[in-house]
User: Fold this.
Amino acid sequence: MTGTTSEELLAAQACLRLLHTARATLSDSASVSPVAAATLLAGPIAEADEALRRAGLAGNEAVLIDRIYDLAPPPRAIDPGPPAERAPMPRSRAREGSQS
Assistant:
């Protein structure tokens, strides 16, 4: 994490909680009414708003997104292995494929 303050980290975590709550709440719109969804999201929205304000990130989406990326685990190195060996495609078949 490069230069992320604890307040920025808390704001990023609050936004992620809001995102996950919104996904869970809104994923089944047949069983959750709009009123129920608003009630379920009110707390996480207020928490995220307050955390963003304390961190000085309210209205600064670019910095917020950087802080959210700071929360993600580093990508794992993927060993692609040896390249697959393929026989070259005859020119006539290659031309046919490009015309579709």
About this structure: The chain has four helices and no strands. The radius of gyration is 23 Å. Confidence is low (pLDDT under 50) at residues 92-96.
